[in-house]
Amino acid sequence: MHAIWNQYPEIKQELEAVIDLMDKNAYCKDKVIENSIKELVHTSGKMLRPGFSIIASKFGNYESERTQVLAAILEMFHMATLVHDDVIDEAKLRRGRETIQSKYGKNYAVYIGDYLFCICFKLLAQTASLHSIQMDSKAMSRICLGEVEQLNSRFDQTATVKDYLKRISGKTAELFALSLYLGAAESECNKNMSRLFWNIGYNIGMAFQIIDDVLDYTSVNEVLGKESNHDVKEGVYTLPLIYALEKKPQVLVDLLSKESYTNEDVELVKHLVFKYEGVEKARVLAKKYTAKAFKLIAKLPDNQYKEMLKEITALMLDREY
């Protein structure tokens, strides 16, 4: 369990129950798949999405068992997208550990991701309301489309800030929004409050992804827990690079037009992104989304969970990994 939850023992206890639930539902006749999923379950990252879902549920008629199942669904869906991402990106590291695709091969990784989706839908059908199932389905479609848009935009030097924001709104912000929304809606919060939680999650997710993309330029592998500058190598142009390209520096345009990049090329790209203020401008935009998230959180009813959400949001949006 990530240290972020140590100061919130009530939520930490709930998340431990979520981990046990995911472990229990990882059963599969194929033991490579089962053991791989169990490994993912017990090496989870910050558990932010299930944590947010639990916190939002505290604003309504809280039911522990129901909330834990929904939290498990959200985390396992997130895991599935990461497994598939690593296949597409041919990533070797995730959270400081060897990725599933690197360890077992791409074929098994695809099936492991698919099996995680199957578990999600099985639990969803048993637990959630029809409305939430519909919201989940729409959100999952938008997340998948965000990934497809990222794939289609590889090595595209004409990609705009608007294109990037559209991509990450599906790829990342959607699941943060869904996590807070489901927690509220399934605990019978009214429509206005549930929608407020959706908007809070959306802005948190936008800021989170921009910060993540900035860290790809400012951190090293050991801190990130994954390969830094991997996006550039794969032709994924994130916000810092897009901002730098807006100034159309010929040296950067020529560098990115090469058929393949050496490590020296990647380091030069990184230098140029800093030189042309791509990182600085991306940080400014992340702060705008962060400020909007806090402004929306301020509209929630005053209680200990509102303060908890503010504190955790502050921690996750001021990070080095």
Quick tags:
two-stranded antiparallel sheet, Farnesyl Diphosphate Synthase, 16 helices, mainly alpha, 321 residues, globular
Question: If you had to describe this structure to a student in words, what would you say it looks like?
Answer:
This protein is mostly helical. The protein has a single domain (3-316), classed as Orthogonal Bundle (Farnesyl Diphosphate Synthase), CATH 1.10.600. 73% of the residues lie in helices and 1% in strands. The protein has helices at residues 9-24, 31-41, 48-57, 64-89, 100-104, 106-127, 130-152, 161-185, 191-218, 221-224, 230-233, 239-246, 250-256, 263-275, 278-297, 304-316; strands spanning 93-94, 97-98. Strands 1-2 form a two-stranded antiparallel ribbon. The longest helix has 28 residues, at 191-218. 44% of the residues are buried. The mean pLDDT is 88.
Give a summary of the structure in a few sentences.
Helix content is 73%, strand content 1%.
